[in-house]
Amino acid sequence: MLKEIISMKTTRRFLKIMMLGMMLVMIFTALSVCVSAVDEEATEAAAVEETAETVDNTKGTKALSAALVVGLAAATGAVAMGFAIAKSVEGISRQPEAESKIRTALMLGLVFIETAIIYALIIAVLIIFVL
Fold this sequence. Notes:
Radius of gyration: 21 Å
Distance between the termini: 54 Å
Structural class: mainly alpha
Mean pLDDT: 76
Largest sheet: none
Helix content: over 70%
Low-confidence stretches: none
């Protein structure tokens, strides 16, 4: 009984950490979009004021922000997937008769986690090509 209570506390703590990580990814995505937009406006303003060649830093900023968004989302998703798989295997080992229900719930959870990673990839592509 004590082991299950400790496991539940650990699970809740891990879920809180994962949610915090996903929120940080979303905040970082929003900040990177703002930074790339401000950097692009500054470059355009400098190009208007000066007729000399200016260095285009917007591509580098966009590439860096897109890489960080995808990297953080992929790392967070990989940790979440590993945790979900470990818990499902543990559940199947304790109750082999519930294997099909556990496997179904696992697959549904993995799909949701992967969807969040794909959304981050879409945002990164939008950062690079649209902004």
